[in-house]
Amino acid sequence: MFDTILVNPIINVLLVIYHLLLAVNIPYALGFSIILLTALLRLVLYPLTAQQLKASKKMQDVAPLIAKLKEKHKGDSKKLQQETMSMYQKNGINPAAGCLPVIVQLPVIWAIYTVFQKIVTLKPQETLEKVNAIAYSDWLKLNTVWDTSFFGLPLGQTPSDLMKTVGMLILLAPVLTGLFQMIQSKMIMPRAVEKKAKKKGGKESMDFATAFQSQSLYIFPAMIGFFSFTLPFGLTLYWNTFTIFGIIQQYKIQGFGGLQDWIDKYSSKKSLKGK
């Protein structure tokens, strides 16, 4: 049922894009079809993404007020809950508003991941039979096996395998994957989230949530980069395109977010060097 509702329709959209690119003689049509399909799905999901990001932005804006309420009503959880809900109502915030868009998007994101995993790992002799069996129309069917390379890189091979033929240069793919993921993660974070609060004795500390968020900023992108090193290159192409468009959409709605801290730090260092 999952394939019928989501995976097969997405494959047919991919076939439409692929045939259009072939008609105008675009080289590496399958690789560019993956990029265009990912961008198209990002645009389709944009209303849900925008709703999620706006809800997140509102929660970030009231975070200082929540912190004050926690300090004011320390030890009185019932009063804290009442004051928090009252503050949410005054600011027009629904704490669950950002959850529904995520729940709706996840099946689609998983479906497109499944599509590319199926497409790029098919053996040449399987391609015509399996892809054409899914095609909704005869004109969408493949007459010949498509080229599964992108600028000379096989979409079905992993960067770890390609190191034998391409060399260390292929490491740029997982490194860029991790870097793009880190940029997006940093943009989601509120400004100055990494700054530590000082205790009375002058020692620095941070609460568990802040510490976890700061650590995950580096751990999660490193994990994504490692996974892209062990997964087919076509999936890395999809994930990087998905993340880049996510960064663009996020900037349009929230600006640089927490990334502005890094930009300011770099600008101040650069200005000091120039003096």
Name the helix and strand elements from N-terminus to C-terminus, one letter apiece.
HHHHHHHEEHHEEHHH
Report the average pLDDT across residues. 83
**What is the radius of gyration?**
23 Å
The number of distinct β-strands equals 4
Task: Note poorly predicted spans.
Answer: 193-205
* Class by alpha and beta content: mainly alpha
What does this structure look like?
The protein is an all-alpha fold. The chain folds into 2 domains: 1-151, no CATH class; 157-269, no CATH class. The chain is 71% helix and 3% strand. It has 12 helices and 4 strands; from the N terminus they run αααααααββααββααα. The chain has a two-stranded antiparallel ribbon. Strands 3-4 form a two-stranded antiparallel ribbon. A hairpin with a 2-residue loop joins strand 1 (149-150) and strand 2. Helix 1 crosses helix 6, helix 2 runs parallel beside helix 11 and helix 9 (172-188) runs antiparallel to helix 10 (208-230). The longest helix has 23 residues, at 99-121. The N and C termini lie far apart (65 Å).
Task: Write a short abstract of this structure.
This protein is mainly alpha-helical and 275 residues long. It has 12 helices and 4 strands.
